[in-house]
């Protein structure tokens, strides 16, 4: 069987109906992964290649003052066994996996090439191991814009993939290579000890999803707390993205800082961003959106200084990374002051 024949067979099976027990594949893959980890441990870290993959050569840069020369390391990336071929989001949207890969060491990178059909694309990650920095996500060698994966997520972490408008296919690179070095002072005035690399294996994939035929309404967002971080609420604003994306109010300064915080609900709530301006003072960065279903409020308040007795205008702008066709997001913003 040629490589093209194998691709044709896999494509036909990917387009067929899901098995009666879709979790069965995940269970089998999990057992395979555990077996591979045990074998690697016994073999002293030797990785068994189970498919045609690309070897990546990277250079490990040492800290200044180390005696050894930089070492060239050859590492192999494997296909990801831990991410499903198909996935259904909480709002019912179906995702289909286009490509998958795996990174089994820090300091390496790997790439996959996928077609662009016009449907939205997402990248996904799942990590086994210790807390570690996630790989950077590059499209055709460039940063995509949205924030990357969480540090070593144990559950599937989905992020939007931004592609050029006229692209027919793109090469997606997951990059864990670094340059330079770092150290940590564990005690005051103590020595700065080199940071030891932490072991983590990353399953990575690119998915395509088809926008729902009809709008899927998210669950209502909870009311903002009346008091937060020792401050009392001055006003609350609520809306639904993309229909409502701005707010404005007037505030008279008392000399105390004005704080602004936000929460969202919906399958794409984690992709929302917010920018604020208070009396001409722009927020330095875009804020993400907390998701509050239970437990303590996920505060991420930004504060602005307003001189006593001065009346200023507070404005806010709301946006979302990636596509959101027929997948709206509820948002709420609270403005606070002591």
Can I get a quick summary?
With 338 residues, this protein is mainly beta.
Mean pLDDT: 80
* Quaternary structure: single chain
Please give the share of residues in helix: under 10%
Shape: globular
- Beta-strand segment tally: 22
Rg (C-alpha, Å): 24 Å
| Cα separation of the termini | 72 Å
User: In the residues, how many domains can be counted?
Assistant: 2
Would you kindly provide a written description of the structure presented here, covering whatever features stand out?
Keywords: Membrane, Transmembrane, Transmembrane helix. This protein has 338 residues and is mainly β. It has helices at 3-14, 23-42; strands spanning 55-60, 71-76, 86-88, 94-103, 109-115, 121-129, 136-139, 142-143, 157-161, 169-175, 183-185, 192-194, 200-209, 227-228, 231-241, 246-252, 258-265, 272-278, 281-282, 302-304, 311-320, 329-337. It has two domains: 51-209, Sandwich (Jelly Rolls); 227-337, Galactose-binding domain-like (Jelly Rolls, Sandwich), CATH 2.60.120.260. It is built from two helices and 22 strands. The radius of gyration is 24 Å and the shape is globular.
Task: Summarize the SSE layout with pairings.
Blueprint: H1 3-14, H2 23-42, E1 55-60, E2 71-76, E3 86-88, E4 94-103, E5 109-115, E6 121-129, E7 136-139, E8 142-143, E9 157-161, E10 169-175, E11 183-185, E12 192-194, E13 200-209, E14 227-228, E15 231-241, E16 246-252, E17 258-265, E18 272-278, E19 281-282, E20 302-304, E21 311-320, E22 329-337
Antiparallel strand pairs: 1-2, 3-4, 4-13, 5-10, 6-9, 6-13, 7-8, 7-10, 11-12, 14-15, 15-22, 16-21, 17-20, 17-22, 18-19, 18-21
């Amino acid at each position: 069987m040629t490589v093209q024949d194998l691709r044709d067979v896999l494509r036909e099976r990917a387009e067929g109906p899901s098995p009666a027990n879709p979790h069965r594949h995940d269970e089998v893959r999990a057992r395979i992964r555990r077996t591979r980890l045990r074998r690697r441990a016994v073999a002293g870290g030797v990785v068994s290649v189970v498919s045609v993959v690309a070897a990546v050569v990277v250079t490990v840069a040492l800290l200044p003052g180390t005696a050894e020369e930089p070492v060239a390391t050859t590492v192999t990336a494997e296909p990801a066994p831990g991410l499903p071929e198909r996935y259904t989001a909480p709002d019912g949207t179906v995702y289909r996996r286009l490509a998958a890969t795996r990174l089994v060491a820090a300091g390496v990178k790997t790439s996959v090439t996928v077609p662009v059909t016009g449907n939205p694309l997402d990248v996904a990650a799942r990590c086994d191991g210790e807390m570690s920095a996630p790989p950077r996500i590059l499209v055709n060698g460039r940063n995509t814009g949205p924030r990357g994966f969480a540090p070593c997520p144990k559950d599937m972490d989905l992020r939007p993939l931004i592609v050029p408008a006229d692209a027919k296919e793109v090469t997606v690179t997951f990059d864990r290579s670094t340059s330079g070095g770092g150290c940590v002072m564990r005690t005051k005035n103590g020595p700065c000890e080199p940071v030891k690399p932490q072991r983590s294996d990353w399953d990575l994939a690119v998915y395509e999803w088809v926008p729902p035929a009809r709008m899927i309404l998210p669950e209502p967002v909870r009311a903002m707390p009346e008091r937060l971080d020792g401050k009392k609420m001055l006003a609350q604003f609520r809306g639904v993205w993309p229909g409502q994306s701005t707010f404005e109010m007037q505030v008279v300064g008392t000399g105390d800082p004005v704080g602004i915080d936000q929460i969202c609900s919906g399958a794409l709530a984690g992709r929302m961003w917010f920018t604020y301006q208070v009396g001409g003072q722009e927020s330095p960065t875009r804020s993400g959106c907390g998701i509050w279903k239970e437990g303590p409020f996920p505060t991420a308040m930004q504060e602005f200084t307003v001189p006593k007795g001065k009346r200023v205008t507070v404005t806010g702008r709301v946006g979302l990374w990636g596509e959101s066709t027929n997948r709206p997001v509820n948002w709420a913003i609270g403005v606070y002051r002591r």
